């Protein structure tokens, strides 16, 4: 819907009150106790509701009771409040709804015949404005039943008060300025302040009887009731708004149809995609929807609607909360299903829309429901399949389908009365937009293995991780092996590249195996003034001088840490270290020694240098840098830890010495410097730096475009070219990248990314000719054409 200020999202639940398997009732607090608050979705989970909206207004900072009435399953949980603008939804024993003001009159009669007005049941303090004014509890008498959460006691805010505990109509306790821990089942408390306290002290004695009489107006046997505030719609017309927080806000309302058969639970959302509503706009919508009478419930941050989706077991937010998360509220209005388990009616089967050639797709039953719309466990139902030719269905698991051919295939599923046709496209190279190994570089030590992950994007806009077994893998240059799933294992220190291919599209990343033989010293701990000593939460002290770290944890049973920090910003570490090495003179303290590292992206890593310092004298510690860090790194600190509640009598003080902090770097995947190439149109001679070399095919111009021979161009730059006749494809490998070109095709693959070509490659004299622009973009080079000399210079 669109109002005067923008789009607004409205959610509506229509409830058929004549359905014998539907029950409407209220929910309160936690575990059915008022005097506390809970998010409606958690109330619904506790009670088994299938849908709910938030309920009455309340004071955020108070104990957690609504301003108005709450009746649950015929029992009054909270009484109506003495507030001016209040109207309640009430449903009688016959399931007939009413909306009107609901009032409350009650009095307490003691054994000596004295009477005192009872002002409320299970109420928190509020400022009254109807029938009397002032604080609701001062000089008043209130009742608290076994539905009140005594952990949030109202009397604590009153100062002087008296309580009376009544069990089976008999006074069993009287207490001043204190309360019981819990109200027994069937019992109640009377809380008196001021004049009411005087009444209790004068007329109530332990062991005497006491009687409470109250009635509701209108006085009927209400099955459920929940208070709101102003009427929104009255007899199909806009009602006078008697209370409103002005402006566009999230709103909640409840109303019913003229024939009183249908109940409507409505929310208007206030979020980045919905502007909220005024109450006047909400009234307009309700009338348009055919609502005969409606009342406004609490809104703003309280507005919530949750529901169980058809055929699912889980509740979820239907309305996005105004402040991002559901607010805890004291009560809510809920819908319950009492239907028995019925026969399967329908459901939904999910199957991915795209597959790679050779891939197995697994179908899932995402929802199933019976004739009463109860959810059914997917394990309890079966699906009938109609599978297209060219798709192989697994006999042992009929939910698995193998797609060995390219094309588009239809699979039909029947679940109860629901029939779906699933159209699956098996992607070809024409559908591929990008194939990318997620790791920018693979670094492993000799003997280690790493399995890369791969992401593909397609021209239909989809993007997904793929099963690496469906790809072709090559390991070039690096000394190791690659398995069918792309797992690389290093055998000797070396540098190379890993290539993954699908349908001729290839992508590559550098592979580094092993480290450089020589370490690099980054700190000898002989620079005074660059280190800081700091204890965790200010607990712990120490000093550092000439490589000697003296620490004192102080006296505490909590976790204690003393940091040797590299100033306030840390120590910048150049290069790409694989290992850290540190000489440590131990104190046999048993403490935990660690270092803190921050990478280029700001992610912090905590690295164990020693789980326990259990030695005396010098020892060299070597630890690997965590995998996946983004270089360069910053060394933040070296620190010692006294474990929380340590039972091994580790000392509170100690002294360590540090020396010779080194890094050992990974072997480098370096790109060799390229010579300058100078070609001349229609001439088979090329200048490589200052050296002349011959070509077997000269550069040419065709239809105004300059073409160079791919093989000569690539090999002169130190690259490698492969020809695949079955695919009519040329592959160029250089600088840890792969370029793929197809004859007579106006696109290329630049390290796995589809790029458009303004002219297609072709063969001349047995050589693949490529346009200058394709070579420039593909190899990341600068190419200059001099029209006067007809020369082409490549830098």
Brief description of this entry?
It contains five helices and 74 strands. It is mainly beta. It folds into six domains: 1-102 and 227-338, no CATH class; 103-217, Sandwich (Jelly Rolls), CATH 2.60.120; 344-426, Sandwich (Immunoglobulin-like), CATH 2.60.40; 435-509; 520-665, Jelly Rolls (Sandwich), CATH 2.60.120; 677-794, Copper amine oxidase-like, N-terminal domain (Copper Amine Oxidase, Chain A, domain 1), CATH 3.30.457.10.
Characterization of this structure:
It holds the Pfam family Cu_amine_oxidN1. The protein has 795 residues and is mainly β. The protein folds into six domains: 214 residues, no CATH class; 115 residues, Jelly Rolls; 83 residues, Immunoglobulin-like (Sandwich); 75 residues; 146 residues, Jelly Rolls, CATH 2.60.120.260; 118 residues, 2-Layer Sandwich (Copper Amine Oxidase, Chain A, domain 1), CATH 3.30.457. It has five helices and 74 strands. The strands form 18 sheets. The protein has a seven-stranded mixed beta sheet. Strands 3-23-22-26-20-21 form a six-stranded antiparallel beta sheet, with helices on one face. Strands 49, 51, 52, 55, 58 and 60 form a six-stranded antiparallel beta sheet that branches. Strand 66 and strand 67 form a beta hairpin. The radius of gyration is 39 Å and the shape is extended.
């Amino acid at each position: 819907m669109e109002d005067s200020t923008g789009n607004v999202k409205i959610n509506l639940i229509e409830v058929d009150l004549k359905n014998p398997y539907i029950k409407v009732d209220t929910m309160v607090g936690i575990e059915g106790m008022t005097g506390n608050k809970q998010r409606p979705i958690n109330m619904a989970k506790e009670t088994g509701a299938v849908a709910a909206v938030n309920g009455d207004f309340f004071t955020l900072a108070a104990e957690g009771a609504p301003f108005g009435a709450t009746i649950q399953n015929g029992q009054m949980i909270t009484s109506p409040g003495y507030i001016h603008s209040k109207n309640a939804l009430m449903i009688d024993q016959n399931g007939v709804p009413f909306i009107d003001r609901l009032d409350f009159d009650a009095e307490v009669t003691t054994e000596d015949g004295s009477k005192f007005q009872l002002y409320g049941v299970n109420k928190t303090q509020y400022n009254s404005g109807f029938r009397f004014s002032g604080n609701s509890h001062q000089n008043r008498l209130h009742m608290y039943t076994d539905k009140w959460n005594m952990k949030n006691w109202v009397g604590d805010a009153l100062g002087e008060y008296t309580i009376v505990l009544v069990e089976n109509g008999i006074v069993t306790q009287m207490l001043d300025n204190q309360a019981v821990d819990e109200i027994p089942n069937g019992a109640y408390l009377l809380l008196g302040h001021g004049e009411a306290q005087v009444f209790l002290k004068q007329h109530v004695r332990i062991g005497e009887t006491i009687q409470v009489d109250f009635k509701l107006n209108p006085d009927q046997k209400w099955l459920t009731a929940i208070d709101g505030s102003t009427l929104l719609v009255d007899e199909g017309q806009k009602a006078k708004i008697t209370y409103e927080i002005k402006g566009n806000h999230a709103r909640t309302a409840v109303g019913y149809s003229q024939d009183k058969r249908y109940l409507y639970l409505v929310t208007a959302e206030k979020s980045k995609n919905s502007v909220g509503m005024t109450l006047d706009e909400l009234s307009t919508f309700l009338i348009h929807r055919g609502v005969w009478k409606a009342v406004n419930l609490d809104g703003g941050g309280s507005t919530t609607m949750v529901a169980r989706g058809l055929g699912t077991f889980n509740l979820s937010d239907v309305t996005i909360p105004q402040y991002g998360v559901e607010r805890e509220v004291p009560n809510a209005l809920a819908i319950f299903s009492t239907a028995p388990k019925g026969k399967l009616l329908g459901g939904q089967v999910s199957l991915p829309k795209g597959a790679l050639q050779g891939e197995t797709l697994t179908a899932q039953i995402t929802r199933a429901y019976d004739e009463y719309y109860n959810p059914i466990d997917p394990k309890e139902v079966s699906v009938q399949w109609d599978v297209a030719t060219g798709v192989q269905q697994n006999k042992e698991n009929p939910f698995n389908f193998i797609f060995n051919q390219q094309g588009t295939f239809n699979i039909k599923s029947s679940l109860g009365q629901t029939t779906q046709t699933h159209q699956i496209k098996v992607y070809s190279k024409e559908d591929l937009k990008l194939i990318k190994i997620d790791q920018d570089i693979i670094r492993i030590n000799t003997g280690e293995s790493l399995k890369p992950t791969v992401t593909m994007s397609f021209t239909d806009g989809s993007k997904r991780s793929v099963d690496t077994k469906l790809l072709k893998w090559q390991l070039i240059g690096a000394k190791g092996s690659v398995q069918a799933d792309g797992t690389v294992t290093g055998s000797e220190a070396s540098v190379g590249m890993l290539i993954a291919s699908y349908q001729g599209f290839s992508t590559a990343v550098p592979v580094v195996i092993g480290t450089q033989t020589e370490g690099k010293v980054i700190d000898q701990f002989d620079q005074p003034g660059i280190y800081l000593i700091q204890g965790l939460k200010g607990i712990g002290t120490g000093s550092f001088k000439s490589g000697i770290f003296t620490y004192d944890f102080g006296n505490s049973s909590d976790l204690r840490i003393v940091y040797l920090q590299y100033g306030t910003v840390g120590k910048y570490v150049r290069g790409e270290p694989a290992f850290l090495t540190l000489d440590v003179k131990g104190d046999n303290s048993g403490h935990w020694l660690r270092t803190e590292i921050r990478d280029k992206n700001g992610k912090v890593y905590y690295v164990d240098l020693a789980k326990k310092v259990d030695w005396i004298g010098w020892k060299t510690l070597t630890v690997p840098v965590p995998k996946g860090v983004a270089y360069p790194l910053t060394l933040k600190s070296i620190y010692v830890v006294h474990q929380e509640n340590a039972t091994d009598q580790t000392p509170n003080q100690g002294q360590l010495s540090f020396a010779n902090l080194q890094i050992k770097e990974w072997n480098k995947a370096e790109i060799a410097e390229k010579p300058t190439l100078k070609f001349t149109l229609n001439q088979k001679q090329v200048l490589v730096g200052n050296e002349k070399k011959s070509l077997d095919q000269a550069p040419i111009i065709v239809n105004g475009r300059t073409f160079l021979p791919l093989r000569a161009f690539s090999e002169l730059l130190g690259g490698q070219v492969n020809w695949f006749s079955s695919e009519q494809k040329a592959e160029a490998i250089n600088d840890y990248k792969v370029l793929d070109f197809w004859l007579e095709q106006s696109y290329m693959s630049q390290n796995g990314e589809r790029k458009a070509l303004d002219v297609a490659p072709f063969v001349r004299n047995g050589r693949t000719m490529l346009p200058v622009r394709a070579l420039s973009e593909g190899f990341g080079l600068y190419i200059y054409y001099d029209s006067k000399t007809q020369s082409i210079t490549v830098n």
